[in-house]
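Reading a protein record of the kind used here takes only a little practice. To see the layout at work, look at the sequence and tokens printed below.
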Amino acid sequence: MGEDSESALRGIQVFLDAQAISAVAGCGLRHAAYWIALRQEIITAFSKQRTFRLPLGPCEPYRTFEPADDYVWADRLVIHCADVLQYCFGSEEENPPRDKFQSTSSMGVLYPPPSTDKRVARYEELVAFQTLWAEMGPPSFKPIYARGPDRARGEVFPELWYLNNCHVAGLQFLELARILLTVYNPKLPRLGPGQRTAMRTVDREVRTIVLRLCGMALSNQHSPPGLVNAFVAIGMCGDRFTDRLEQEALLEVLVKLEDEHAYPTTSTRELLKGAWGWDGYDASE
């Protein structure tokens, strides 16, 4: 994600800020722009591990598990991913957020960092959302066909078919949130005999999520943004893969995205080859 995308996001934010609430509640251009900007902001903040810059206050009406159509449910998952990004990296909002976890604002006002207890409590709230989703999410978000990879045939990605683009998008943002909650778990030991075991468990879980994200993208090519979401996960977590077959499969996803959609992935592929220590590549360069 380059400076051009950051500038575009800033421009959209200026367009939205004056009437942000109506942007979410309405159905016109501002409404569409807000949701496009929100998804783009998630991808950019995730990729750059930076502060979340789009206001989420207008999303309050969506913070419920009341019955709704599948597009609203997908938007709820997008908002959840944004909430997780705010937890991990903070946010730029003019007013202190409702959970008071962010430390600064776009106006340069500093807020006190959260206590460990508050941060753990907020983490548990975010995990609880995923538990509630598993219990109360509509059955239409379950795959209409699912098959695990056949390693004997060189497969590494699961096959997961979904009915609609909104199902793919919502679930992929949920998976991105799972990656963050796995890595930024405040209960993980930082030192001690259990630290290394805990990190191995984290790496294993992250790899599983990335493979699932890629499987969603490849199984639902009627939804091209799925490949972009998979690319983001690969770019940020691909270095955790040690299996050569999986590494090659991840690179194939990136090549496919660039060849079929002209989305630049060359630099990411080169960085991953270096991180994996492939012949001719130096991870330190």
Notes: The longest helix spans residues 195-219.
